[in-house]
Amino acid sequence: MTEQAATGPQTVEAVVRARMAASLGGRRGMLEAAIPGLAFTVFYLTTKDLRTALVAGLTLAVGAVVLRLLQKQTVQFAMNAVVGIAIGWLFVYIASSSGGSESEAALSFFLPGLLYTTGYSVVLAISCLVGWPMIGFLVGSETGDPVAWHDEKPVVRLCTRLTWLFMLPGVVNVCLQAPVYYLGVTGRMDTDLAIAVLGVLRVGVGWAVRGLGWSAMIWLLARNATPLEPAEAS
Fold first, then answer.
1. Interval 11-21: pLDDT, tens
2. DSSP letter for each residue of the chain
3. How many structural domains does the chain have?
4. What contacts 25, CB < 8 A, 6 or more positions away?
5. What pLDDT score was predicted for residue 234?
6. Domain that holds residue 140
7. Residue among 114, 123, 119, 109 nearest 174 (CA)
8. pLDDT at residue 214, rounded to an integer
């Protein structure tokens, strides 16, 4: 057994728990990711001013970064929100420059999130279908060998289940949000109504679905029964 394995987590479940906690940033990290988008939705629907809505979202995101810096903490999670708002702003600008109305431009703010979620969901699904579940590489990063975990069938089975569970909330969110976005873009739903529904789905329903998915992962990880290294290693 390597020194890292001896002093660090002893099971695959422990590794994934630690890596997930670090990548999500806890409650504060999740709030930093969600609040700027929510602010954009609320400010646009109440003021009907696209610039005000974008500035409000960006101000909250940058404020979170500044607060992290003052507290001498990592800015990773707050910066994710800044990048998200910036990309949303780019899509809004493109839609506006293409001759779309202000409401249509505001609706385009939600498009990059849909594209990103669809993209990573497809990647995660493919990784499971080809037998190399993405979460397995988290295990590899802990052991020092990025692919050795693939020789252990119990590890592959566990990582496959975890990857499907991690992917599922994104799939549900896309299935709920994409039809609303399509109806708004094609004019079959009032654009402002589509923006309001997307805001609720993205923050309210979206985080609830993620919570259920993560709860299922936590339940699976609570068994703590899959050795990090083969049984013959000691």
1. 778 777 777 76
2. --HHHHHS-SBHHHHHHHHHHHHH-HHHHHHHHHHHHHHHHHHHHHH--HHHHHHHHHHHHHHHHHHHHHTT---HHHHHHHHHHHHHHHHHHHHHHTT--HHHHHHGGGHHHHHHHHHHHHHHHHHHHTT--TTHHHHHHHHS-SSGGGG-HHHHHHHHHHHHHHHHHHHHHHHHHHHHHHHHHTTSS-HHHHHHHHHIIIIIIHHHHHHHHHHHHHHHHTT--SBSS-TT--
3. 1
4. 32, 33, 76, 77
5. 38
6. 3-221
7. 114
8. 78
Give CA–CA dist 202/131, Å, rounded.
Answer: 31
Q: Which of 186, 129, 187, 140 is nearest to 163 (CA)?
A: 129
Residue 233 lies in a domain: no
Residue 21 lies in a domain: yes
**Crossing angle for the helix pair 153-185 and 111-129, nearest 10 degrees?**
150
Distances in whole angstroms, Cα of residue 55 to Cα of each of 23, 89, 97: 27, 10, 18
Whether 232 is in a domain gets the answer: no
Q: Is residue 226 part of a domain?
A: no
pTM over 0.90: no
pLDDT tens figures, 56-106: 999 999 999 999 899 888 888 788 888 988 999 999 999 988 887 888 899
Mean pLDDT of the chain: 84
Contact by Cβ (8 Å): 61, 29:
no
